[in-house]
Amino acid sequence: MITRYALFQGEVFPDKLEAFKKAVMDELLPTWLIYPHATAVRVSFASDRDDQAPNVPLVLAVDFASRDGLDAALNSQERLDSRAATQRVLPELFKGEIFHYVTESSEHLVARSAST
Fold first, then answer.
1. Cα–Cα distance for residue pair 37/78, rounded to 1 Å
2. Per-residue confidence at 116, pLDDT binned at 50, 70, 90?
3. Domains of the chain: which residue ranges?
4. Sheet strand arrangement including 94-104
């Protein structure tokens, strides 16, 4: 599985956290859900961090079955539309940078007995 992460590093403006979350879920998430070849989209809002960790109030993860699928999504009109939406929505709520990472993953489920 290929996952492309977007780390939103910076600051949500004071008293704008709920508006930031609502804008992400109502205006940006729909643009990410229609990426070609995406198999899953995860939106994670930070709830805690280490003392010295940079502030990353939002992490977006989009899964793809293959690198070809990711490449197609990155070159799609849907991605251009999502970038335009991000540039329209976030400046009044968030100041920072967005960094992207691509990972190759394998999933390993933890087996537990009924008593644990």
1. 11
2. low
3. 2-104
4. 38-45, 58-64, 2-12, 94-104
Q: Give pLDDT, residue 107.
A: 83
CA-CA distance, 18 to 55, in Å (whole number)? 17
**Top-tier CATH class for 2-104:** alpha beta
Q: Are 93 and 74 in contact (CB under 8 A)?
A: no
Residues 64, 1 contacting (CB under 8 angstroms): yes
Q: Does position 115 have pLDDT exceeding 80, yes or no? A: no
The b/e string for 97-110 (b: 16+ C-beta within 10 A; e otherwise) is eeeeeeeeeeeeee
- pTM: predicted TM-score of the whole model, two decimal places: 0.91
